[in-house]
Amino acid sequence: MEIRKIEYDKERYLSLLLEADPEKEAIDKYLDKGEMYIIEEDGDAVCEVVVTEVDNDTCELKNIATLPKVRGKGYASKIIQYIFEVYKNKYKRMIVGTTENMIPFYVLNGFTKYHHTVKNFFIDNYNEEIWDGDLHCIDMYYYSKEFK
Fold first, then answer.
1. 45: closest CA among 31, 29, 65, 30?
2. CA angle, 19 then 56 then 77, to 5°
3. Is the pTM of this model over 0.90?
4. Topology of 2-146 in CATH?
5. What's the number of CA atoms in the CB half-sphere (13 Å) around residue 34?
6. Which of 24, 121, 142, 143 has its Cβ near the most Cβ atoms within 10 Å?
7. Three-state SS string across the chain, please?
């Protein structure tokens, strides 16, 4: 397993990015300005994360996805811990926006402080309805990991 930063041609990982964010138009809004990292296993990208700057004190985990065939093996947790190390000396906090279903995963992985909610986020920002399993996604819930 190797974690590496992707400097160029991030769109070659579009199919993986779409696992977490179902519209290319939404991904296009942050991919170029974000920093992308992948986990490779046997030469294949199995997990990715994109982090963007919000302001001088805050960065945001914008997209994280693991290939369906390898989910449950801890790749997402490993890449989150890796990016915490990368960004902890540059920012005071990292935030992540998520659906209700994923809150326990992020809390378990260090995003333990509730930050804010954006009402109607998924309705206002996507052309199609967004579903997370049986949950119709409406609001985006933000949590943070405090570094300093």
1. 65
2. 35
3. yes
4. Aminopeptidase (3.40.630)
5. 24
6. 143
7. CEEEEECCCHHHHHHHHCCCCCCHHHHHCCCCCCEEEEEEECCEEEEEEEEEECCCCEEEEEEEEECHHHCCCCHHHHHHHHHHHHHCCCCCEEEEEECHHHHHHHHHCCCCEEEEEECCHHHHHCCCCEEECCEEECCEEEEEEECC
User: Which stretches in the chain have pLDDT values below 50?
Assistant: none
Find tokens 């138009």 and name the residue: 25
Nearest CA among 41, 42, 38 for reference residue 76: 38
> What count of Cα atoms within 13 Å lies in the side-chain half-sphere of residue 27?
21
For residue 129, give both structure tokens.
Answer: 């309805």
- Could you state, in order of their start, the residue ranges of all structural domains in the chain? 2-146
- How many CA atoms, within 13 angstroms, populate the side-chain half-sphere of residue 29? 8
* Residue 133 pLDDT: 85
